[in-house]
Amino acid sequence: GQIVKLTDYRPTDFVLRGVDMTLKLFEGHTDVVTILSLERREGVPADAPLSLDGDELILASIAIDGETLAPARYEATPERLVVRQLPETGNFELRLETRIAPEENTKLMGLYRSNGIWCTQCEAEGFRRITYFPDRPDVLAPYRVRIEAEKAVAPVLLSNGNPIESGELPEGRHYAVWDDPFNKPSYLFAVVAGDLDALHDSFVTTSGRTVSLGVYTEKGRAPQAAYAMDALKRSMAWDERRFGREYDLDVFNVVAIADFNMGAMENKGLNVFNHKYVLLDQDIATDTDYAGVETVIAHEYFHNWTGNRITCRDWFQLCLKEGLTVYRDQEFSADEREPTVQRIASVRRLKAHQFPEDQGPLQHPVRPGEYREINNFYTATVYDKGAEVVRMIATLLGAADFRKGMDLYFERHDGDAATIEDFVACFEAASGLDLSQFALWYAQAGTPTLSVTERWDPEERRHTVKLRQSLTQGAAGTGTEPMVLPVRFGLVGGNGEDRQAAAEVSGEARLKDDVIVLTGREATITFGGLSDRPYLSVLRDFSAPVMLEHEQSEAERLALGRLDPNLFNRWRALDDLIAEALTTAARRPLGDGEPALKAAIVDALLASADDEDLAPAFRAQALTLPGESDVARQMRENVDPDRVHEVVDAARVTIGAKGLAMFERLSAGASATEAFSPDAESAGRRALANAALAYRCAATGDPDAAVAQYRAASNMTDRLGALAILAHRFAGEAASESALDDFFRRYERDDLVLDKWFALQATAPTYTAVETVERLANHPRFTMRNPNRVRTVLGSFAAGNQVAFHRPDGAGYRWVAEKLASLDRINPQIAARIATTFRAWRSFEPARRAKLDETLRQLSEIKGLSKDLQDIVDRSRK
Ligand code: DPP
Ligand code: ZN
């Protein structure tokens, strides 16, 4: 495939003024008539042709200003339409007809059918699968869309914007016309047609306009959209309050679709969702699912301003909308839930997904400089590190100037296809800060290391803190200049309060309130006038996405784990201690009997879990040990997944045994006594009880408590919490098998719940899980056509089952590779995404490394591999 480069950007030769489309939906095919109103851009040579993108298209007819074109004037292939001898000046109308087959579209890009419903996914380059078009985000136009379909099959006809007309047609057909007055790029185009139910509500904006809201679902499921609707209204109100952003159309619709490549899509006025992020109630969904729906609903809604009103000039600027919108949804969740717990969850996610990406062969900067397949750049780096970069801007500027900068961005660029430079310039203008060095965060790939050392001078009563940053060049080959690191800190006294101290900075850094802004490779800050040695709490709230190397004694870290008034760092003090201990232990050989965790660390963890002054959700986070993949990542090389599993599991047993009495108390009657409410506080109580149950069963080796909770559960969180313990800790045992059978029978009819059943079995940490996934893939309810199902079997196994995927005989690798090869012919995007699991191959011990290498080589040599999968495989091998 061809490489697209950021530096090659230039505007189109023709300006698009408007789009008028008619989609005639029939069983088996759809006829699309597109009228593009175009004009040659000033300064473009008169003989320059018009070149439009296509993908697997067949042109049925072509006319300009009502006149059919002679074949000599155009050239059409499935991928391109070139038209010559076009008017030198003035507007002209290009009319195109294409015939497409949504029923055969298994890539789920463009127009396709899911359970009979017609729906679209156009980001990034799906629109060109519907009609020939200048399919790039800097081509903006108003759209008018007419949909025609058989009324009995598709009573509901939706598109972007406002509905302006509808009516009957002969032969039982009908039509609807939608008008979107806002200029938009083609990737935000959407059409949905089908026999759908809906939940309706309305929202009155701050200026008093009433917006009709609809959440559309498959028949009979509208009641399960109630929480999504609630989250939507809260998102709309929050964006007004926090960012002064009001909704702009008369309607806002969300549609839940069963077969969907992404989580959801922010099409203007018509968000299309993976139904996993819409449909729930307490019987079918866990608290994690509730939080997921809330976040994704908010995220897509927030895109209306950060993405839609202001979009991206080109796909290299993807983080302009995604990083910013993730930051916004994180802030929303922090406000709606527990801020510290939300931050812990975001940082865990960043470290689990983005850090390994940034340190491996698929490394790329937050704004990539080139790509072969843009679908492969919807990554943790663009999204999550992109959000961290925005968060650092907010930290550097402070809340007031950050808001000023955002206001200016909306004011200056409303209606634009903008760039990162445009975005950053707004914060410079708002604050007077020079952010040119800061902008390196967008250009330099890799995770910087921040080293911190301290020296207490008892004579002078001075504490000296030395900061150093370094960055090594990785696969992306980008620069390694020092970056701007905002390091939030506190000097904690023995009473658990932050001390105030006069500070003196030497080296390239400055101090802004409680933030050290490190700009050079190193700097020293001296704090004077202290009565005794403080505990240094550094990188509070994870104020910069770095790897922290802080030379601090175990005693000091345990003290911070008990005292730090910054709760995020209180959590991190223990989490880091545990992660390091597990990593050290995992480097010792398999079967080494030494306990991984010292008694003092276990006691500290148990004290934290039992501290009733802390929110239950926080205590549950404290009990969540670093996962096997976190330990593997920290080891960096020579990883033996069996040893990692042994170490992490032994730690669970040790903690469970020592805290057994407490865990029995905390796990007793998780939900039996209270009516279900999905709010964050109640969810926190359930999380704590379920964490306690897991430790209890680890300690006793007895499944009875889990079986009892499974049976008595009155909500899915408790039922699945118990089932997860049975399916993983007691895999293969009678208690586990019968609970899994029961679960299947209970929820057989609901694919969303069935996904949980598939995923739990695919992630059971035993060698036999390879045979299990083989069996699951042959299960009548398994299908390669449904991305969720594929993700819950193949994806969960490859990314979430360290033991079985890495089985020493290589059977796990072979099975995944085989499945990916066949999946690639159906849905390349999903195949490529799952294949990224192989990128860590270099970090394993020699025998597994060789097998992984060989598997990747075999994959790379398959003939006719998609551009998506080929790109991932080739880059992973580098
Ligand atoms: N649907 C994806 C998201 O919202 C891509 N825009 O992040
Ligand atoms: Zn997004």
TrEMBL record:
Gene that this polypeptide is encoded by: pepN
BP terms from Gene Ontology: proteolysis
Domain Peptidase M1 alanyl aminopeptidase C-terminal: 555-876
Required cofactor names: Zn(2+)
Occurrences of domain Peptidase M1 alanyl aminopeptidase Ig-like fold (ranges): 446-550
Domain of life: Bacteria
Record's protein name: Aminopeptidase N
SUPFAM superfamilies attached to this UniProt entry: Leukotriene A4 hydrolase N-terminal domain, Metalloproteases ('zincins'), catalytic domain
Organism: Jiella avicenniae
Stretches assigned to the Peptidase M1 membrane alanine aminopeptidase domain: 227-438
